[in-house]
C-alpha cells in the first residue's frame, strides 16, 4: 500500500491550538462500524455508549519535560529532545541542529553538560548527562515537548497531561485521555463500567511521520510499556463475560495487541514494542476505540483505518471537517464502536 492513499486536506484553522475551556466538553463523533453511521455528541455523553461490564483501559503515562535547550561549543543554540531512557543518566534523543551534534559534542545548560556519545540510524543520538543526574536537569531546565503544530506559547504543563498521568516517561501525551474528568470517571464507574490502566511511554513511535512510499517499509521506533496483573485479570474476566474492552487511545491498542501478537495472551510485566498496525490487521483484544483525529499519513491514522475501515474513517474525517470539528492533540474526539 502507498502512503499517499492515507492523505487528506485539513484547513489550518481546524488544528486546535489550545485545550477546551473545560475538560469533557469537546465534541464527540460516534462512528458505528456495523451501521456505518455517524452521531455528534458532547464528550461527556460518551457514557450513553458504555454498558455495565465493559472495561475502559487508559494509559497512565506522564509526560516529562523532555525538550532541553543549551549552548554548543561554538556558542550557538542547540536543542535535545529526550526519547527513551536506556541507562543511568543515558538516553536516546533527537538533536538540533543535527549536523552540529557530532559524537563527542558537549551541550552546556548553565553549568550542566550533556554529551553526544553515539549516533544511530534515523537521526537518533545516544546522550549522557555528565556532571549531574538527568532528573535534576529535566526538572530545572526541561520544557514540555508540545507538538510542532501547536503554536500557542501559553499552554501550561497541566494542559498537556491527562488527569490520571502517574508514571513519568512519555515525551508525547496519550491525548485521547485529555477528555476525561474525575467527575466523568465516577459516573462511568457508577454505571458498572470497569476502569483499567496500563503504561506506555509515548515516544518517537507515536509521532514520527512515515517517510517511505510503501507503508510496509516503515519501521516503528520501540516504546516501553507495562501491563499489571490486575489489568490482565480484568481483561480476561471481561472477555469471558462477552463484554467489551474499550481502548482509550492508540497507545493502549498497541500495548494490548502487541502482547497478543507476541505471546498469544496477556502476560504481566515490562516490555517494549515496535508494532506497526495498518490495514489489514486482526485485532484480538480491542472491541471499541476512543481516539482523537490524527494527522494525514500518520501511523495513528493507519491504526484507526485498520480498526474500522479506511473508507468509513475517511468519510468520518470529511464529515468532521465539514462540521468544523477540531483536530489533533487538543482537538475533538471520536468513539468507534
From TrEMBL:
Q: Tell me, what does this protein do in biology?
A: Transfers and isomerizes the ribose moiety from AdoMet to the 7-aminomethyl group of 7-deazaguanine (preQ1-tRNA) to give epoxyqueuosine (oQ-tRNA).
Q: How does it assemble?
A: Monomer.
MF terms from GO for this chain are:
S-adenosylmethionine:tRNA ribosyltransferase-isomerase activity
Q: Where in the cell is it found?
A: Cytoplasm
| Record EC number | 2.4.99.17
Keyword Phosphoprotein belongs to the record: no
Which InterPro entries does this UniProt record tie to the protein?
QueA (IPR003699), QueA_dom1 (IPR042118), QueA_dom2 (IPR042119), QueA_sf (IPR036100)
Q: Which superkingdom, per the lineage?
A: Bacteria
Chemical reaction(s) catalysed: 7-aminomethyl-7-carbaguanosine(34) in tRNA + S-adenosyl-L-methionine = epoxyqueuosine(34) in tRNA + adenine + L-methionine + 2 H(+)
Q: Name one GO biological process term.
A: tRNA queuosine(34) biosynthetic process
UniProt GO cellular component terms? cytoplasm
According to its UniProt record, in which pathway does this protein act? Answer: tRNA modification; tRNA-queuosine biosynthesis
Under the heading Pfam families, the entry gives:
Queuosine_synth
Family under the similarity heading: Belongs to the QueA family.
Query: Which keywords has UniProt assigned to this entry?
Result: Cytoplasm, Glycosyltransferase, Isomerase, Queuosine biosynthesis, S-adenosyl-L-methionine, Transferase
Note the PANTHER family from the entry.
S-ADENOSYLMETHIONINE:TRNA RIBOSYLTRANSFERASE-ISOMERASE (PTHR30307:SF0)
What is the taxonomic lineage of the source species? Bacteria, Bacteria division WOR-3
Taxonomic source organism? candidate division WOR-3 bacterium
What NCBIfam families does the database record attribute to this sequence? PRK00147.1, queA
**Name of this chain's protein:** S-adenosylmethionine:tRNA ribosyltransferase-isomerase
Amino acid at each position: 500500500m502507498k502512503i499517499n492513499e492515507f492523505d487528506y486536506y485539513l484547513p489550518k484553522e481546524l488544528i486546535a491550538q489550545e485545550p477546551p475551556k473545560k475538560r469533557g466538553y469537546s465534541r464527540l463523533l460516534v462512528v458505528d462500524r456495523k451501521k456505518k453511521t455517524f452521531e455528534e455528541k458532547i464528550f461527556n455523553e460518551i457514557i450513553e455508549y458504555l454498558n455495565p461490564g465493559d472495561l475502559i483501559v487508559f494509559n497512565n503515562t506522564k509526560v516529562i519535560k523532555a525538550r532541553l535547550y543549551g549552548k554548543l561549543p561554538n556558542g550557538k543554540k542547540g536543542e535535545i529532545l529526550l526519547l527513551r531512557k536506556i541507562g543511568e543518566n543515558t538516553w536516546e534523543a533527537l538533536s538540533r541542529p543535527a549536523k552540529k551534534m557530532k559524537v563527542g559534542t558537549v551541550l552546556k545548560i548553565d553549568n550542566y553538560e550533556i554529551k553526544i556519545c553515539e549516533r544511530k540510524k534515523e537521526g537518533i543520538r545516544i546522550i549522557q548527562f555528565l556532571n549531574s543526574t538527568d532528573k535534576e536537569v529535566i526538572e530545572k531546565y526541561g520544557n514540555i515537548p508540545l507538538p510542532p503544530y501547536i503554536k500557542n506559547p501559553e499552554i501550561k504543563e497541566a494542559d498537556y497531561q491527562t488527569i490520571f498521568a502517574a508514571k513519568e516517561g512519555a515525551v508525547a501525551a496519550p491525548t485521547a485521555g485529555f477528555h476525561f474528568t474525575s467527575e466523568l470517571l465516577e459516573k462511568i464507574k457508577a454505571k458498572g463500567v470497569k476502569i483499567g490502566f496500563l503504561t506506555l511511554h509515548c515516544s518517537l513511535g507515536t509521532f514520527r511521520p512515515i517517510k517511505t512510499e510503501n507503508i510496509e517499509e516503515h519501521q516503528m521506533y520501540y516504546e516501553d510499556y507495562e501491563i499489571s496483573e490486575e489489568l490482565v485479570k480484568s481483561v480476561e474476566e471481561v472477555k469471558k463475560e462477552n463484554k467489551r474492552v474499550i481502548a482509550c487511545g492508540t497507545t493502549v491498542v498497541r500495548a494490548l495487541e502487541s502482547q497478543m501478537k507476541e505471546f498469544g495472551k496477556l502476560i504481566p510485566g515490562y516490555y517494549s514494542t515496535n508494532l506497526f498496525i495498518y490495514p489489514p490487521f486482526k485485532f484480538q483484544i480491542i472491541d471499541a476505540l476512543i481516539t482523537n483525529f490524527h494527522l494525514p499519513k500518520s501511523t495513528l491514522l493507519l491504526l484507526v483505518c485498520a480498526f474500522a475501515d479506511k473508507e468509513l474513517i475517511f468519510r468520518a474525517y470529511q464529515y468532521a471537517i465539514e462540521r468544523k470539528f477540531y483536530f489533533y492533540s487538543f482537538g475533538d474526539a471520536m468513539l468507534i464502536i
